[in-house]
Amino acid sequence: METVKGYVDHIIYRSEDTGYSVFILENKDGESTCVGNFPVIEEGELLELDGETVLHPSYGTQFKVKESRRCEPDDLHSMEVYLGSGTIKGLGAVLAGKIVEHFGEETFKVIEEEPERLAEIKGISGKKAMEIAFQMESKKELRRGMIYLQKFGISTNLAVKIYKEYGESVYNVIEENPYKLAETVDGIGFKIADQIAINAGFRLDSEFRIQSGILYALQQGIASGSVYMLEAELMGLTASLLEVELSEITRFLMDLAIDKKIVIKDEEGGKKIYLSHFYYMELEVAARLKELDQKFSIDQERVSEDIKKIEKEATTVLDETQQLAILRAMENGVSILTGGPGTGKTTTISTMIRLFIENGLEVLLAAPTGRAAKRMSETTGYEAKTIHRLLEVSGAPEGRGSSFSRNEENPLEADVIIVDEMSMIDISLMHSLLKAVLKGCRLVFVGDRNQLPSVGAGAVLEDMIKADQFATTTLEKIFRQASKSDIVVNAHKINRGEEVMLDNKSADFFFLKRYDPRVIVAVIIRLITENLPQYLKLSPLDIQVITPTRIGAVGVEQLNVALQERLNPPTAGKAEKKVSFGVLRVGDKVMQTKNNYQLEWQVRTKFGLTIDKGVGIFNGDIGIVKRIDNYQMEVEIEFDDERVVSYPFGNLDELELAYAITVHKSQGSEYPAVVMPMYSGPRMLMHRNLLYTAITRAKNLVTLVGDEKVFAQMISNEYISERNTSLSERIQELYEEYQ
Ligand SMILES: Nc1ncnc2c1ncn2[C@@H]1O[C@H](COP(=O)(O)OP(=O)(O)OP(=O)(O)O)[C@@H](O)[C@H]1O
Asked: Ranges for the AAA+ ATPase domain (predicted)?
């Protein structure tokens, strides 16, 4: 057995499920590749590893880790890394290097006992020396806590978060119930808490472990879109996650229900188990909708006349169904307008908005993503905001207190709120929106029920339509102009499960038959870099590659690497930064992959004057890397809507390349041209709904590259991911109560 010690320089591969990790360890002897199982591992950590050097047939020499220990900084290099890691404000890597070079082994002792001596270093004033000493002193307890936490295999980053949450009571939490961490500390889930608990000597069948495991299983359900789980399903998942027999599960469920952590509803079809928060969100959404769904009396004839006047100016005559949608929106507190592409939704809402405004009503327009809001503004001619912006992001992290400044205490001032792309809205956003709406305001929900459901839990639009209590208008006719577009016509065919001709006689819908995945990728690259930009007079960055899968030969990850290499290769003078997905380079197209309520943005004029600012960058926002500053340790990104954000290096793992994105991430956006590979993939992904969503993202051109059999199979695959949601039942119950 050999022992090596060094810093985790770069993680090459990691499986979150098994903890299997491949990384580069750096020490004074150079770099070595290490492999092993690590429940948690982070770049920058100092590790001591026991294991052996082996020769892998394809990957060469590797150090196979058997045991690992985290170390506190002791040698010179470690002290330098600790001081320069950003823990001490005002101390960067360069100054840290100078300090350690000057004081050697004595560094920490000097800082703690004779801090004034720091001023011996050029660049450190007496005042700064005292500030550094003060920070070191105030972090003494923290350092002690960290060393304690690291004994349980907790990484430095997480240890800081835990310590921030619990301070000196951290010792009790770990000894009494480490599973609490999973509920209270951002970034710690069940798996990490479980590892800590096991390291701290908890039994596999401990009560805390089983209760925490049940909550974790419920969260897994939520992550896949469901709001509740049936008891049997929950038990099965919990037992397999915990690897224990669960004969006494009912007792634990009752305990969790008494603690108000879950809600159990014994209904037709079995016992439904909810995380309390989700149960009450559905209940409150149903109650708010019922409350807002007032009847308004209107003069129908006058409305018809007003519509005629607007039609004359706009030169489009609305058909009967479109007019009906407008009447319903005026008469009802809650109404729904649904239909596929080209069925005239936008035309209808544009007229509706004018009517409301001409009647002196205050109208607000909103959509779930920045791109969808931008499109709504362009097509209606009135300003639309993202729902997050409408509700004014407060900066509180998601799930901790109210994320929005607009709520029941500070409601939106509006008579009408029209929300587009409703299919993307999950139960949580709907809940926040409805909390901020006053009784007497009309809500008009617009969307296409055949699009993929929201990324977050719930099926709000579908459930509202299914409940059959709100005035709903479905537009079915494709208008003449739209019917000339094969994108629209084919989208409707796909939605009905009909065959689509692939003879390439179309002006806007092409299918290039290729069968080898390497050839598919090569053709996509050629389309993006040469053919399409010329044909459409667009920049390659305006053409979006959309693909069903993340991994695999034509998945997002592979395509992004290939596209980055062609569209934004390294050149002298172009700044770069190593990141978890590879390299980030100035000029790269990137996407934010989670909601971040704290990141600050600014909109600047071309002379650099700030004209608007705020907080919050959200999942799916796409931008371009403008600057990488290795000194300030930040990356500047300009998003589509001109918002500019400085990402500290620590936030870069929230980004990924966006030359290619998944269909799920493309929801609610529209692009001038879309290119999509058609190659085999899992049946639960390769379905009609997904193909329909992908194709309807394109405004002027769709190009599919791949196997026509896969295309046909997707059209006939009616798989719809079954989500356990009960909003429609909750709505129906309320309406029945009042009958
Ligand atoms: N009553 C109408 N008579 C004639 N043309 C119409 C009518 N309503 C809409 N159109 C035309 O049909 C086309 C599609 O309409 P619109 O953009 O409103 O549909 P949509 O449902 O919003 O489509 P998408 O979801 O694709 O944006 C437009 O060119 C529009 O001018």
From this structure: 331-449
Residue 677: strand, helix, or coil? strand
* Separation CA 428–CA 430 (nearest Å): 5
In angstroms, the CA 129 to CA 108 distance is: 13
Q: Whose CA is closest to 50, among 12, 92, 84, 3?
A: 3
Sign of CA dihedral 15, 21, 24, 28: positive
Q: How far apart are CA 617 and CA 596, in angstroms?
A: 5
| Span 467-525, pLDDT tens digits | 999 999 999 998 867 778 999 999 999 999 999 999 888 889 999 999 999 999 999 99
Do 640 and 512 meet the contact criterion of CB atoms below 8 Å apart? no
Look at residue 280 and give its three-state secondary structure: helix
The angle formed by the CA atoms of residues 402, 404 and 405, to the nearest 5 degrees, is: 105
Written as one letter, the residue type at 723 is: R
The two structure tokens encoding residue 504 = 């390439």
Segment holding 264, helix H or strand E: strand 262-267
Whole-angstrom CA distances from 440 to 295, 326, 355 are 9, 17, 17
* Closest CA to ligand 1's atom 15: 344
Please calculate the CA angle 140-144-148 and round it to the nearest 5 degrees: 165
pTM for the full predicted model: 0.77
Nearest CA to ligand 1 atom 24: 341
pLDDT in tens, 217-269: 999 889 889 999 999 899 888 988 888 877 767 788 999 999 999 999 998 88
Structure tokens at 393: 């992001």
Residue 344 marked ligand-binding: yes
